[in-house]
Amino acid sequence: MLSLAPPGPVQPQRDAILSNPSPSRVDVEQLRRRFLDREAVIGVIGLGYVGLPLVGALTTKGFSVIGFDVDGEKVAVLNAGRSYIHHIPHETIADLLRQRRFRAVTDFAELAQVDAVLICVPTPLTRHREPDLSYVSGTARSIAPHLKPGHLIVLESTTYPGTTREVMLPILEAGGLKSGRDFFLAYSPEREDPGNSQYSTTKIPKVVGGDGADALVLATALYDQFVSRTVPVSSCETAEAVKLTENIFRAVNIALVNELKMVYAAMGIDVWEVIRAASTKPFGFMPFYPGPGLGGHCIPIDPFYLTWKAREYDISTRFIELAGEINTAMPRYVIERLQRALDEQGGKGLKGARVLILGVAYKKNVDDLRESPTLKIMELLEARGASFSYHDPYVPEIRPSREHPEFAGRRSVPLTAETARSADVALICTDHDGVDYRLLVEHCPLVIDTRNACAHLGAGNVVKA
Ligand SMILES: NC(=O)c1ccc[n+]([C@@H]2O[C@H](COP(=O)([O-])OP(=O)(O)OC[C@H]3O[C@@H](n4cnc5c(N)ncnc54)[C@H](O)[C@@H]3O)[C@@H](O)[C@H]2O)c1
What we know:
The structure is a single chain. By secondary structure, this protein is of the alpha/beta class. 38% of the residues lie in helices and 12% in strands. It is built from 15 helices and 13 strands. An eight-stranded mixed beta sheet has the order 3-2-1-4-5-6-7-8, with helices on both faces. Strands 10-9-11-12-13 form a five-stranded parallel beta sheet, with helices on one face. Helix 7 links the parallel strand 5 (152-155) and strand 6. Helix 12 crosses helix 13 (373-383). The relative contact order is 0.09. Bound molecules: nicotinamide-adenine-dinucleotide (NAD). Nicotinamide-adenine-dinucleotide (NAD) binds at residues 45-51, 68-71, 74, 120-123, 135, 138-139, 142, 157-158, 190-192, 194, 297-298.
């Protein structure tokens, strides 16, 4: 069965895209059958927040998977049946090993064993906030010596339109094999939402674009086996643009509600109440929520991949830049609100204040600190002469990061009546479930809430920011 797509207007377009003639020298139908029969061995390169759930999705549907990573420590941990990501239980990894469907390796020579390679390596920004494709091109260089006829190579990392064919393809073809004739190259963006139990990897539709008709047919056949629905599009560039569009949509809308938050706060209006009421409109409105700034590996970064590429076409992406400016200003806005609240409470001021921060992870119920605005807030607090401690059940200790090495090794304090009482002010940056916000508002003299986590408590000492 090739298609799990529901009938509807997408189907004719999908059939048209998938039915172009084949110029390839390998037996495409035989390869396709290996995917349909789930006999194919799949390589996943980059065993991180995206790659690891992908391994789980593939093995659940009967594929054997070899996981590749350059980080020997991660590989050793996984082969010992343990997980290094909070929301992926040890038991999940141990199960994969028990079923003998997965092993992790650092040696790319093992690519000789696999039929398809799915690449989930990081795509960050450089210090100058330009795309850093060194992981993608490094991976292509690692694959190239082991590329063999019939290989299907799919890039899943988020990136600007053109990366698959302008950056990956020349490296892969340098050895003499040709894309579309000897091997097959495709792009399919990862849409993972770590910690989201409603939408795990297999339940999220997958967009696929191929370098040529056969690549698209093969990639679609593979993804059809383990995701709820595949959405073929006409090119790798279109699929790359789809992912950026999704994340730019979020970045811009979050900037909009952050701007509204500041205006409405000045007017004495609660933006959260406004959004809740606006959400009752059954059409034409979608709620987004303000916060202390953007975090994570995607929303603060991906939009600038397009900004960079757009310059090649003499186009400036003003919407994206503006959204970036507003979202980047949020930690300062939060600090201003905190300072004013301290002043109003008794002229205490920020200098010398003891701040208890709730939540360092960039979003609720995950242990991921990447780009977390809390780290920026910590930096600003110390620069203004305040001291802080933090409580985060997901982050017992802050790991070293490139932007904020100074906070590495700081440890989470327990949230008790005593720790709450001994702070001048608490600042909720991340609204993890399972945190006792009632205890916090009962014992801490002042609480600044950037996530509306205390709304249900009706406490008089909470200031939204
Ligand atoms: N984390 C998310 O929520 C999310 C969601 C959607 C898309 N993405 C995208 O997916 C991609 C991967 O993100 P992630 O969050 O999984 O990153 P990650 O840092 O958690 O994992 C990447 C892994 O790749 C490994 N790696 C780096 N270079 C390598 C190489 N040359 N060969 C083999 N392994 C290598 C790293 O050691 C690491 O284990 C990025 O492009 C990201 O934008 C992430």
